[in-house]
Amino acid sequence: MTKIGWIRHGSTSWNKEKRAQGKSDIPLDDEGKADARKLAERLQSDSWDILYSSPLKRAKETAEYIAEQLGLEIHVDPRLLEVDGGQIEGTTERERIERWGEGWRTLDLGIEDPSSILERSRDFIEEIIQKHEKMNIIVVSHGAFISHTLRELDAESINEEHMKNTSLSEVVLHEGKWKCELYNCVVHLEE
User: Fold this and answer.
1) How many Å from the N-terminal Cα to the C-terminal Cα in the chain?
2) Catalytic option among 61, 82, 89, 170
């Protein structure tokens, strides 16, 4: 069986301000670093073979804590970037409404199309399951990207719950079908 552990990066100052980050390269804040350490300790309880990360600072910094704890090398892959937020990056919901009105979601503001997101995701997954068949793979990425990907892999098990920072979601490939066995889990933050 091939297993992928999808991890959303630790928190940033923009997360706390509820600013759309997208491809903006924002580092972890102090809480994000502390939570990434807790996550890395949690991951020791399982066996992981390989580690991939988005190149954005917040994901890569999260992956660095994991790499150090588990003794893994980080493989950076640009296909794991967050959804491009176009003109909304750096703005809060209130600022978007002030600038573009209540219907801002219906406007063409340069936000990446879901088909583009899923194309990147499918391409990445197909490559890693060929390279790392029957291995346990950690992937550190971003909330919107992970949400789109998990719904594509196993729509029946995924709800619309907001992806939590440093959450772990696990999908397993068994007989050609993906099954989500753990979703948006942050037990490491509750201890």
Assistant:
1) 30
2) 82
